[in-house]
Write a structure and sequence with these properties.
signal; about 800 residues; Plug_dom; six-stranded mixed β-sheet; transmembrane; membrane; Outer membrane receptor proteins, mostly Fe transport
């Protein structure tokens, strides 16, 4: 299999130019707009994402969000254009592309669950169990927390967003509670235009090219899985409504509603080897409403409602076959006040109440095994009951930005602010779950039981209750307050700009006071903005989670009881809480960065070097007495280089077309032991690697560690046709990971260690392309037609990292097609 071709690159570069058969007259053939009607025939101005090297922020506006090929419209799909962002090697697969879960992502090799997610200035990150990043379609745990959670409290639909700011380095002091990066989203607000926009999209399995190991083709074709491992038959639908309406002169209402759903086939065999076929539903709902009011030119307020819910079906197991529904849901209310003082200072206040939850709603809380049914019906049935883990937070964030002032030869822009957040969180099994095992009084082998009650058949009257396992009801609660104060001074002196920032955070649960400096300096070398050199030194303190408080306590809710044939208890086993108290410091990441921004003619270039040294990362350990505890023994070291080049503001105009392009390159090297789906619940051991025994943290990170990624995006507009063509070429180097080679090393003391050796994965080049057409249908109405093809040339690589030939290859997604139509009124 050939993994890299030049064709995608050539095709996109060709997109910089349009065929010469387009007459030059097309440049002026656009229809003029009536002064009394909104102009909808002209295309929006071409936008290229903007980078500010001094603050390490990338701004992606509403126009660019719509123009880029963003797949299913999740945040992760949008951030693929950022060279500092990385994704899991196992985040997407060709065999199970029918599922809807958005991907997680990492900044500069840091743990994906240590990012900060904000909506309209409010922290909306989930701190329940964000490191449990895998999906949960089967076998929910009876002794642990609910899997399939996420640090993204809200699974946002980017089509409903006005702007996304992405901070990866030199992050200002106004942001706290992260050791990775910051994603700050702003929901659309009323902009003075009244409209209703309706869209419908569809994707089907017939429009996808699947890549499956030959040994798995039969299982794949029949969807022989109940855990969404194979989804050969699926249909995805997308419904979006967005609207704006003015209410009087100073008030406007904005509404955004979307549903992205998938329906896919699964099949399994029960205890009697009978085949069952079932369709799973998997959907993500979004609702965002905002009411804006301008009281006068200096006072503006807004109130917002937000909701996101991902719910999907699942099957307990092939034996205990009750269905369940797993959901990751959030509701929130928000308010904002902006006031400009007479002095020119600006006061901003954000308030919010958010509730986030991961819930498991099962068909029943009783599962049984009846030996009398052997050979007749499946002997096992039932479900594992309901569980809920929830976080409710009230947030208050005031900020005062003073009017710029001159002190001597320098000019200062001082910002003073704070964050106050009260959080209530809990894990709960509300009613318990119960297992009952019934054995025959006299066993009759594969024919069930020998008749005891005179019925002549093997039935329940021929059994006795042999074993009862009660997974008891219980609740673990954690309530705490976090408070922060920050100061940020932007200073200009001659050709120099300085940012002196300081942030102090207090966590009442851990009782930690963390002080983080945020410092940077930029030299405008020639005083005209053409050449800017930047250096920064910053510390970022991360987050702590409900999972640490739960630890092993759920185990103590369980009781196992044995009975004899007369119903007498013969043995009772209870389970101790093996949790040991935690005394945790707050994880942190120290950052050093150097940057060079250059403007040369129409081109803008930005080169950045970032060094991250993260310490006190949290992971789970077991002591000599078998007790579990969390400590700060994890670490991460990453070196990153990113480079971007674009010609924003200077599109290439040719034959009635306008084209802009953006090139990005990212390189990094990471050592970390905290990158798997289980994250902080890992218990890594020392290993033998490259001739010596080392701690697992010294191994190259096996995930979220693509050493080289190159991205090229182009956006071409044809105004005369109301047409936009966008492309994104991605080259991702496979890189080298360390894996267990199956042998062991024995040292002089007789201790044995697994031997790890380097393994190189294949490189991958893909091209995503998107064409949008917005024809004018009536005087004030506009149509919409979009065709998006991801991985146009169907290039894939294997993501298998196991050394065993018996383990099948898994592949990255092949070519997929997405169609969307709509109307704007």
């Amino acid at each position: 299999m050939r993994y890299i071709h030049l064709t995608p690159l050539i095709t996109v570069l060709a997109g910089l130019y349009m065929p010469p058969t387009l007459a030059d007259a097309l440049r002026d053939s656009g229809e003029a707009c009536d002064n009394e009607e909104p102009c909808i025939t002209s295309l929006p101005q071409i936008t290229v994402t903007g980078y500010d090297i001094a603050t390490g922020v990338q701004v992606i506006d509403q126009t660019l969000i719509e123009q880029l090929p963003t797949g299913e419209g999740n945040l992760a799909d949008l951030l693929r254009i950022n060279p500092a962002v990385d994704f899991s090697r196992n985040g997407r697969g060709s065999a199970n592309s029918g599922i809807m879960r958005p991907e997680e992502f990492s900044f500069h090799g840091q743990p994906y669950y240590q990012n900060l997610f904000m909506i309209d200035g409010i922290d909306t990150t989930s701190d329940i169990n964000p490191g449990s990043g895998g999906d949960l379609f089967s076998s929910p745990s009876l002794t642990g927390v609910i899997g399939g959670s996420s640090p993204q409290g809200y699974y946002l639909d980017v089509d409903l967003l006005e702007q996304v700011e992405v901070y990866d380095s030199n992050v200002p002091a106004s942001f706290g509670g992260f050791a990775g990066g910051v994603v700050s989203a702003k929901v659309k607000h009323y902009d003075g235009n009244d409209f209703v926009n309706l869209r419908y999209g569809i994707q089907r399995d017939e429009w996808e090219s699947f890549h499956i190991d030959a040994r798995d083709e039969e299982e794949f074709d029949t969807a022989d899985s109940y855990s969404a491992e194979y989804t050969p038959i699926y249909r995805k639908d997308n419904y979006t409504l967005s609207a704006q309406q003015g209410i009087g002169e100073d008030t406007g209402l904005t509404l955004g509603v979307s549903r992205r759903s998938s329906n896919f086939l699964q099949s399994y065999s029960d205890g009697l080897d009978m085949l069952h076929r079932v369709y799973y539903d998997d959907r993500i709902d979004n609702l965002h409403a905002k009411l804006d009011h301008r009281w006068h030119e200096r006072l503006h307020t807004s109130f917002s409602l937000r909701h996101s819910d991902r719910s999907h079906d699942g099957l307990t197991s092939t034996r205990y076959d009750d269905m369940f529904t797993k959901s990751h849901s959030s509701w929130g209310l928000g308010g904002n006040l902006e006031y400009t003082l007479d002095s020119g200072a600006r006061f901003n206040l954000d308030m919010a109440l958010d509730r986030m939850s991961d819930e498991l709603d099962s068909g029943s809380n009783l599962f049984t095994r009846h030996e009398s049914l052997e050979g007749i019906l499946p002997t096992q049935s039932g479900g594992y009951g309901d569980t809920n883990q929830q976080q409710t937070a009230f947030s208050l964030s005031p900020e005062l930005e003073l009017a710029p002032m001159a002190w001597g030869n320098s000019r200062h822009n001082l910002i003073i602010g704070g964050d106050l957040k009260y959080t209530e969180s809990f894990y709960e099994r509300p009613e318990g779950a119960f297992f009952r095992e019934y054995n025959c009084v006299v066993d009759n082998g594969s024919n069930g039981c020998i008749d005891q009650n005179g019925s002549g058949d093997s039935d329940f009257g021929d059994e006795y209750l042999a074993r009862a396992f009660d997974y008891g009801a219980g609740k673990v609660s954690l309530d705490f307050t976090t408070a922060a104060l920050y100061l940020d001074d932007r200073i200009e002196r001659g050709n120099w700009q300085f940012r002196l920032g300081l942030r102090a955070d207090y966590n009442s649960w851990l009782e930690n006071l963390d002080v983080a400096p945020r410092l940077s300096a930029t030299w405008d070398t020639f005083g005209d903005g053409s050449t800017r050199l930047t250096a920064g030194a910053n510390r970022y303190y991360g987050r702590s989670f409900l999972r640490y408080a739960i630890n092993d306590v759920i185990r103590s809710w369980n009781t196992l009881t044995y009975y004899d044939t007369n119903g007498n208890i013969t043995k009772t086993t209870t389970y101790a809480d093996l949790s040991r108290s935690n005394n945790l410091a707050t994880p942190y990441s120290d950052e050093l960065m150097l940057g060079w921004a250059q403007q040369l003619g129409p081109f803008n270039s930005s080169l950045k070097l970032v060094r991250r040294a993260s310490r006190d990362s949290i992971r789970r350990n077991e002591d000599d007495d078998g007790n579990y505890y969390y400590d700060n023994s994890g670490s991460n070291d990453t070196d990153s280089i990113t480079w971007t080049l674009d010609h924003a503001g200077h599109p290439l105009k040719l034959a009635g077309t306008e084209t802009v392009a953006s090139l990005s390159v990212g390189w990094k090297q990471t050592e970390s032991d905290l990158q798997s789906d289980d994250a902080y619940d890992q218990e890594p051991n020392p290993v033998y690697y490259k001739g010596r025994v080392i701690d697992g943290s010294e191994l190259p990170a096996w995930d979220y560690n693509i050493p080289l990624n190159i991205g090229l995006s182009t956006i071409t507009q044809v105004p005369a046709w109301n047409l936009t063509w966008s492309n994104f070429v991605s080259l991702r180097s496979g890189g080298t990971i360390a894996r267990d080679n199956g042998d062991n090393y024995t040292d002089s003391d007789g201790s044995r260690y697994d031997i790890y050796e380097d393994y190189t994965l294949a490189d991958l080049v893909t091209l995503d392309t998107k064409v949008q057409w917005k024809p004018r249908l009536w005087s004030s109405n506009q149509g919409y037609l979009m065709v998006e093809v991801s991985n146009l040339f169907d290039q894939v690589v294997s993501t298998k990292i196991s050394r065993y030939d018996s383990i099948s290859d898994t592949y990255t997604p092949g070519r997929k097609v997405w169609l969307e139509v709509g109307m704007r009124f």
